Amino acid sequence: MTKPFSSVLITGASSGLGAGLARICAAPGVTLHLSGRDRNRLDAAAKQCEALGAAVHATPLDVTDSAATARWVTDSDAIRPLDLVIANAGISAGTGGGGETEAQTRAIFAVNVNGVFNTVMPAIPLLRQRRRGQVGIMSSLAGFRGFAGAPAYCASKAAIRVWGESLRAELAPAGIGVSVICPGFVETPMTAVNRFRMPFLMDVERASRIMVRGLARNRGRIAFPWPMHLMARLAGCLPSALMDRIAAGLPRK
Questions:
Q1: What are the sequence ranges of the domains in the chain?
Q2: Cis amide bond preceding 225, omega within 30
Q3: Residues 80-91: tens digit of each pLDDT
Q4: Which of 45, 46, 181, 233 has a C-alpha 20 to 30 A away from that of 22?
Q5: What is the C-alpha separation between 111 and 191, in angstroms, rounded?
Q6: What is the pLDDT of residues 12-59, one digit of tens each?
Q7: CATH code reported for the domain at 7-248
């Protein structure tokens, strides 16, 4: 795959989709700015990317810390001007049949929504100055309809999906592309704890290639696999009474 980006920033890059995206972007001549909360896992992901020829700057970071995240984005841009910023860090909860607690609900919004804002907003002025660059926002197919067992997760992904779509139109005249990424089920630590069948489950490498290819093409929405995307869109359009009956028979996270 052609590596179209030379300086890439990725949050939540210590495992899962973040680490997969970093590996796909890694190549000689590419600089990666990676963050994650787990130092050991982040270092392991960085070493994989270095083995592929990339120059890697790994920084332990909690994206809910707005000041620290803004400094990291600015410092990364100073090392090498960013041409791709991926706000990937995200969490879920509810596993075990207990639903999402109040504390989990607040934590999910803090990471999945505020963490995205904290990453993208400091990057926008930097990209505006150069009138070029790409932003990737990690949403989910779960952001098209709320489901029992994961109301906060679904809502957080819906919020950043709509924000990203609006931001795309707002930043296009400045030469900045914005892509909202909506994956289905991917084999990651987040989905490994699910106790239900996950249709069209995809491995991380394939999912990451789809995402990087879509980002390189400045696609507004990168949603996959297409059967799940179709079902998610349909679920969002169904009358509530009908969806209530369908949702009653669905497994809960």
A1: 7-248
A2: yes
A3: 999 999 999 999
A4: 233
A5: 17
A6: 999 899 999 999 999 999 999 999 999 999 999 999 999 999 999 999
A7: 3.40.50.720
